[in-house]
Amino acid sequence: MKETNPTVTVDCMGENCPMPLVKTREAIMKAKKGDVIKVVGDHPNSFDEIPMALNALGIKIIDQKKEADKWSIIFKV
Amino acid sequence: MSATKKNTIIKGKRKATIILHSGDFDKIMSAFITGNGFLAMGVPVTIFFTFWGLKALTKNGFKKAPLSKMNFFGLGRKMINSKMKKYNVADLDTLAKSFKQLGGRITACTMTMQLMGIKEKDLRTDLISDLGSVGAYCYESIDANITLFI
Fold first, then answer.
1. Is A36 touching B (CB cutoff 8 A)?
2. Are the beta carbons of B7 and A17 separated by less than 8 Å?
């Protein structure tokens, strides 16, 4: 399995502040070591703020993509 | 929870404490949104509910909480509620539950309980972690690098 293949997907589509951050954190708390988490959403600020939270938590981002109507962030815990 | 500890690298000790003095709906929202934000970043948070804030922590208190401005006898609150639905903004109950789920702590002020005749059974015991007075807030805040008064 490629390292970027997510084992957990967090769907934050349609979610507003602060729920994308909350859902990301909940997923990290539930995750097992080595899990690759993919967060998908469309709340504009969260695309920048989830990486801030990951940085504060000492988690490195594997991949981050922004499309016209949604974005995704992939990281390993 | 052990997985969380292993995966969470906290550089230097970080902690946030919030005094929620206001019982206004919008200010309670602010306290919980900010609290959830800190928790999402791995910063432990304790909110001290006191005075009107504690009044809002009684059963059905969130529902009754007025807006700090433009409440218009509850009409403003109704308008905000419908706007919150439209923009899919989480309501107070959802925010409070998330706060607890992420490990946030809530302390209820015992002095306010006496002043306002609030009994422990009147409070949202599902949300409260401790009962305490000013000493609890001060002791918790000594090594907190963030403290807010709302």
1. no
2. no
CB contact under 8 A, A25 and B89: no
Residue A64 forms part of a structural domain:
yes
Structure tokens at B24: 């206004």
Q: In terms of C-beta density within 10 A (0-12 exposed, 13-18 middle, 19 or more buried), how is residue A59 classed?
A: buried
Residue A2 lies in a domain: no
Q: Is the dihedral of CA A38, A40, A45, A46 positive or negative?
A: negative
Residue A41 lies in a domain: yes
Supply the CATH number for residue A45's domain. 3.30.110.40
- Cβ distance B84 to B55 under 8 Å? no
Q: Are B67 and B132 in contact, with CB atoms under 8 Å apart?
A: no
Of B41, B88, B94, the CB nearest to A57: B41
pLDDT tens, position by position, A23-67: 999 999 999 999 999 999 999 999 999 999 999 999 999 999 999
> Which of B81, B88, B101, B104 lies closest to B20, judged by CA?
B104
- All structural domains of chain B, each given as residue ranges with its CATH number in brackets, are 14-149 (3.40.1260.10)
Q: pTM of this prediction?
A: 0.90
Whole-number mean pLDDT of chain B? 93
